[in-house]
Amino acid sequence: xxxxxxxxxxxxxxxxxxxxxxxxxxxxxxxxxxxxxxxxxxxxxxxxxxxxxxxxxxxxxxxxxxxxxxxxxxxxxxxxxxxxxxxxxxxxxxxxxxxxxxxxxxxxxxxxxxxxxxxxxxxxxxxxxxxxxxxxxxxxxxxxxxxxxxxxxxxxxxxxxxxxxxxxxxxxxxxxxxxxxxxxxxxxxxxxxxxxxxxxxxxxxxxxxxxxxxxxxxxxxxxxxxxxxxxxxxxxxxxxxxxxxxxxxxxxxxxxxxxxxxxxxxxxxxxxxxxxxxxxxxxxxxxxxxxxxxxxxxxxxxxxxxxxxxxxxxxxxxxxxxxxxxxxxxxxxxxxxxxxxxxxxxxxxxxxxxxxxxxxxxx
Length: 363
Known about the structure:
By secondary structure, the chain is α+β, with helices and mostly antiparallel strands. Helices cover 36% and strands 22% of the residues. The protein has two domains: 3-132, 3-Layer(aba) Sandwich (Creatine Amidinohydrolase, Chain A, domain 1), CATH 3.40.350; 137-362, Creatine Amidinohydrolase, CATH 3.90.230.10. Helix 5 (106-115) links the parallel strand 5 and strand 6 (120-124). Helix 9 runs antiparallel to helix 10. The mean pLDDT is 96.
């Protein structure tokens, strides 16, 4: 991946917005711009310089991962990040600097202002994130790899799940299978919720046993090299009751219609409306309580958003989840999620796991 070119694109964006220098504090944004996989580091991007402010724990790692970037290595004892950044800004005679207002805490900003009383600070948001929303070929390759890791782990998991197993033990097993498949870890803590517990969209697995004839929502993903995947499938042990079949068919129809809506030039809210209208017409509208999807990449939730108020225009290279759901208190829930690439002419579903009704049943 050409990280210097990414920094150049950022500089072009900064010039358009009249920003002389941007202090990047988001770990994901630092990784995107440099290829550095560590943490506790800030990146200062000016009109002509790119300087990574880090500490001695990462000296060798930086040389290995991003040898092209300038560095300022601070001592971890006695030298705070604010003082280190102030020293760099002083040497570059920076008089006005933008910070990531959605990332930097009030306390951290206060420290920066105390360390640089003559520097003017301004807030900036979504500058790097807007660049990250469109993936290049290298990013798409890594996302595909993360999806493959997640799917291989799930296929093994599906063959091992059993009645009486607790949600927690099933989730632990799935995370173990993700690592065994080659993932660094799960994209997030796997969600496995059965029966009435599945009515919670983001239920935390606990000691409840998995019961035959009840929906089991499995929401998981794999963190590969930097990039992540995010998938959801529904399973049911031994038999599929009529109510589950009916609800599942509605959700599947809503998801398929939303996916078919995806193409360049479409607003995120239009994709959401396709899924939401389908569910509403089936009489379950008030039981669909979240957005239809979100972007995925370095983070499991990033731009663009697919929700009712999203006016973002989809562009080729964006990767989004499509995950409508229905959640019925006292009964359970159904959510189906795939990762979808916006192509030049339409879309490509990157995930390949089956999702027809027959894929739900685990004998």
